[in-house]
Every structure is written in structure tokens, then in C-alpha cells.
Amino acid sequence: EKLVLNGTLIDRGEASVDIEDRGYQFGDGIYEVVRVYGGRLFTSEMHLKRLYQSAEKLSLHIPYTMEQLTAQLEALVAANRLDTGIVYLQFTRGVAKRKHHFPETSETTFVAYTSEMERPLEKMRKGVKAVLAEDIRWLRCDIKSLNLLGNVLAKQKAVENGAYEAIQHRGETVTEGSSSNVFIVKDGVLLTHPATNLILNGITRQVVFGICGKEGIPFREEPFTVADLRAADEVLMTSTTSEIMPIVDIDGKPVADGTPGAITLKLQQAFDREIHALSAA
Ligand code: PMP
Questions:
Q1: Looking at residue 280, what is its pLDDT?
Q2: Residues of the chain below pLDDT 50
Q3: Ligand 1 atom 12, closest CA
Q4: Residue ID of nearest Cα to ligand 1 atom 7
Q5: ipTM beyond 0.95?
Q6: Beta bridge partners of residue 159, listed in sequence order
Q7: Res 125: pLDDT
Q8: Residue 151 alpha carbon, nearest atom of ligand 1
Q9: In angstroms, rounded to a whole number, what is the distance separating the alpha carbons of residues 141 and 61?
Q10: Domain ranges in the chain?
Q11: CATH homologous superfamily for 121-280?
């Protein structure tokens, strides 16, 4: 098993983290998770574009072009002979004496590794349970930062309650899942929180908008409330690892009739076609 450390492909067991890496001490860094289907990176351009945007928002320097980064990720997937799984990549502000402010000199630490991960087909067919959780995170959720404690606590609440995901809300407004975006369907229209500072603009979320355009499914990026969520015809979440996942139970109460809805199914089928188009390309 290989990984990439600062541009070099090495054995996983040979990698180590400096105790004064700012990612380790402050969570001062950013990351991405890219899906791999049939040995190919899925929507990697969109992920890397978001990575550069996150870097820019934190004045973090990425010492590679998008082409160089893509080539490194492709080489890693090939070296590990990965078929279905993910690539995880992160950049931190590097190693420096522990002071909060940015160090005058430090080179970013770059790590990328792969992990096998099957598509969650069974869950996607049946749907999953969710719980509600107050969104206690900071006000820059648009940045894909390593600081994930709010998300960790929300997901822990879900797991402790036998649920797959926590749906976060700021007061009455539903924002997003602990590691996903959340949508509802009401009267045939798909709704999700707009891409403001309060949510991460998910790549799967953006792929869903593309599908809606092609399939003629009406959608709006518009905040909705916890009451709207409870009264929705369909609820679904999207993420790189969970794809398009129906939510059929919230806090122990069924969503509509408690089975995945028609629009969710249509989105899943179209998403499936995009994945298969990748391996045919
Ligand atoms: N919101 C949060 C907080 C997340 O962690 C994720 C998963 N990375 C998402 C949304 C979904 O984003 P994507 O579709 O790009 O995986």
C-alpha cells in the first residue's frame, strides 16, 4: 500500500507526522475526498477546484498545479490498484514552532492515500435513519477545513441513536448533514440550503443540480425549516461516499410513508448513469 507524501510515492508504513505540524496541533489545513469508480477519479476537477478555493480562503499555498495534483492522485490509484474506493488528500500549513499566527516560513505538508470503499447500494435502496442536531459549528462552513469537531459531535449523536446521519439546523433553519448536504422534496420541487458560509458546497450537491437540469426536475437553493423537513414528501442527503441517500426516518418518525421517494429514485438512476459513463469513457 502506497501513499503520497509531499509529492513522493512511498510505502504507507514509512510516513510519519511531525508533532509540530500545524494540521496536528491546530487543525490548520484543508482536505478533499474524491471517489474512485472502476479505477478512475470521479469529478476530480470539481473537487480540486474546491480545494484551491479552500486554500485561498485560508491563505494556504498549494505548491502544485491542478494538472500536477491530478497526475499524483492518478499515479497513487494505479500504484494501489484501487478499483472502488476513495482518495483522501490534505494540505496543512506545515511544521513550525507552536504559535497561533501563521509562521513566516513553513512548507505545506501534503498527504494523499487511498481506501477501498464499496458503494452503499443496500442503504441507497432502503433509505437510512437520521437525527436532528443543533448546528454549533463556526461561520465558515464553506471551507473544507480539518477542523471537524462540530461535525464529529453531530455524527456521534447519530451513531448513539442508531442513525446514519445527523441533520444540523441553526435554530429553525436546516443547514446540512454532519458530512453531507440535505435536500427535501415538497410538491415536486427539490429544495436545499443555498451555498453560503453556513454549508459546504458539496460536489455531489452540484452534480444533483446538473441532473435536475437534464431531467427537468425543478429545484431551488432556498433555506427551509425543521417543520418543512418533518412535513416533506421526500428527504435525501448527498455526499461523495454516500452518493444520493434517501432519509426515511427522522428522530424515530417516518418521512412521508417511510420509503424512498420517486424523485430520489430518479436522481439515483441518473447518478448511476454518470458513474457508468465514466468507465465507458
Ligand atoms: N457537507 C459537509 C459538512 C461534508 O463534510 C460533506 C462531505 N465532504 C458534504 C457536505 C458533501 O460534500 P461532497 O458531495 O463534496 O462530498
A1: 77
A2: none
A3: 202
A4: 179
A5: yes
A6: none
A7: 98
A8: 3
A9: 20
A10: 2-116, 121-280
A11: D-amino Acid Aminotransferase, subunit A, domain 2 (3.20.10.10)
CA of 179 to the centre of ligand 1 (A): 5
* Whole-number Å distance between alpha carbons of 247 and 260: 7
pTM summary value: 0.98
Just list the catalytic residues.
144
Identify the CATH assignment for 2-116 out of 3.40.710.10, 3.30.470.10, 3.40.50.2000, 3.40.30.10. 3.30.470.10
pLDDT for 170: 98
The three cell numbers locating residue 74:
492518478
Pocket test for ligand 1, best of 148, 180, 267 (most atoms within 8 A of CB): 180
- Please report, to the nearest 10 degrees, the dihedral formed by the alpha carbons of residues 70, 74, 77, 82 taken in order: 110
Please work out whether the CB of residue 180 comes within 6 Å of at least one atom of ligand 1: yes
Pocket test for ligand 1, best of 53, 179, 198, 271 (most atoms within 8 A of CB): 179
> The C-alpha cell of 195 is what?
451555498
